[in-house]
Structure formats: structure tokens, C-alpha cells
Write a structure and sequence with these properties.
The protein is α/β, with parallel strands linked by helices and 351 residues long. The chain has helices spanning 42-48, 98-101, 151-154, 160-170, 186-197, 212-217, 229-234, 253-256, 280-284, 298-311, 325-333, 346-350, and strands at 4-9, 16-21, 30-40, 65-72, 84-87, 90-92, 113-114, 134-138, 143-144, 178-182, 201-206, 222-225, 239-244, 259-267, 289-292, 317-320, 340-344. The strands form four sheets. Strands 3, 4, 5, 8, 9, 16 and 17 form a seven-stranded mixed β-sheet that branches. Helix 5 links the parallel strand 10 (178-182) and strand 11 (201-206). The two termini are 20 Å apart. Bound molecules: zinc ion (2 copies). One zinc ion binds next to loops.
Amino acid sequence: MSDVKAYAAQSETSGLAPFGFQPRAPRPDDVSIEIDYCGVCHTDIHFAQNDWGRTLYPVVPGHEIIGRVTAVGSDVSGFQVGDRVGVGCMVDSCRQCSSCEQGLEQYCREGMTPTYNGTDRHDGLRTYGGYSERIVVSDRFVVRVPEQLDPATAAPLLCAGITTYSPLKHFGVGPGHKVGVLGMGGLGHMGVKFARALGAEVTIFTRSESKVAEAKKQGADHVVVSTDPEQMAAVALNFDFLLDTIPVHHDLNPYLETLKVDGTHILVGMIEPIEPTVHSRNLISKRRILTGSLIGGMPETQEVLDFCAEHDIGCDIEMLDIHNINDAYERMKRGDVKYRFVIDMKSLKDA
Ligand code: ZN
Ligand code: ZN
């Protein structure tokens, strides 16, 4: 088989450039997918630049993948050639631990196999992500994309979407609840759409007065400028849930004070360790819960796609040709995208 065309980073400073690799030999449970669209996640930048010190070069990023099935293995019954499908942040797990048995593969005791920068559990080969013409994935880690969804705006549902949908569902957000969304990037704007679709009253917290109009446009019922102490005081003891998508260090204490008794502050951005320190008083005095959530399992990833088809929800995207990916990374670092870049993979074929 000929090389698969892709884009890879070769080092911390190389940026992304064309790259070819041999696809793995398909196994009986495998689905072969021709990729049409791939969303660009902040995690992709972190791995391309080795921000977390565990990048295996060359790395082909991309874990918001939408494509069409081109072949299936002999054991695959749920997918057929031509089906529109998606692949998210993981492509395998142990499949035997209690988390895997519950369809919570993201919490696999042995650790999930990430879609890229991982090692295949069977053949030991590197996993390569969605900035690529094709991908081969075990059927358990492939989801069906309803035909009524626009495939490009659906791509970010595989990471940004499921990451915000899963905790809202897990904690039972629904009508009558007041939800605050912290951060208004790719994740935050999806959180607003989901919380509203689930029937909650939604407030966006933003640091800057200049973003208030955009927050309202995103469908928020209310906007709080978090740098204004008066506005923060006005929402003390107000919220049932906070969905915290801010990807950098920030003081949780002022936000905790906006939660009611038994209110829950959910972190989905990796900001470890939490600084400044969280005051125990802010938890104990009102029995508040501080928790976190990682993407979602495979059954719930299918659920979020079906939910979006039913409620006509898609991500707000800017389409990108793959040869502009390095510029796109620079723009994302400046927060200059509304709200997610999605690579049109035709641009890779034409390259
Ligand atoms: Zn992601
Ligand atoms: Zn497991």
C-alpha cells in the first residue's frame, strides 16, 4: 500500500509539514476511514510543541475526525463502506476494566490509547491522528455521524463537544438549573449550546467588557464580567453548576463563591496544579463540590452526535486549508478564532 499523506511536526520548533507513513495492516475489527474534516484542538498545539514533555516525534495531530468508511474487517457488523463516521480522542483501551465495561473508556485503568502520540496495544506502532488522508480504527472506537449533521461543523464535537456535554449530562444539568460557563473558546461556546439545549439558564463569565455582545450572541441568558467585583458580588450563591473551560491558571475562589449550597464547579481544562490555592472555606462553608471531567466514553460520544442532530447543534467553525495550519496555530495562541478551526482534507489531497 502506498504511503498515507499527512502533516506532522518533526520537532518542538519545526512546525507542521508534509509527512508520509505506511498505514497499519487492517485487523478483523478495523474500520478504514477516508478523512474529510479534522478539527484543530489546543491539545494539538501542545503536542506539536512538546509543551507537556511527552511528545513522540514525528507527531501527526488531530482528534476531531470525520470521514467515510472505505473498508471494514470481517468482524465488523456495525459499519458499512460509505457510512459517515467520526473518531475522537482515543482509539483503544484495555476493554476489560470496570471503566471500560461501563463504556467509560477514557477512564480505563490501564490508560486509553490516544488517537495520536500513542502506541498501538497490538503491534506497538505509533498512532497517528487526523491531519491525514486516512485512518484505521477498531470499530468500538468509531461513532456514526447522523447524515443531517454538517460534517465540518460536527468535527469538533468529537473533542470540544463531548468534553463539555459529558459533565453536563453526568451531573444532571436540566431545566431549572443555573449554569455558569467560564471561558468562551471552542469548549466554552459548546458548553453554552449544550446547557441551553438541556433547558438550563446560562451565564457566561468573561474577563472583558468587550466580549459581552459576543457572549449574548452565543445565546447566553446573562453575561458577568469577572474582573468587575460588583458584578461578581451580584451573583454570589447563584449557580448550581460552573463549567470551567479556562485552559490557563486562574483563581477559582471568586467563582466558587458564586455557587449555591451543594453547587458543583467542574474543571475540563488541564490547569494542574491549581494555583492560586483553593480555600477550603469556599468548599466547606456551602458543601460545594470541586471536580473535573475528561472527554466522554464511546457510548456518550455517540450520544452527543445524536443529541446535536436532534437539536440542530454544530460548532461555530472557520474552515482551513492544511498548508495554513502553522498560521492557524499562531492565531489560536492569540485567541483569534471563532470558535474552532476545521481542516478541509481536500486541501491535503490537492497538496
Ligand atoms: Zn482535543
Ligand atoms: Zn480499561
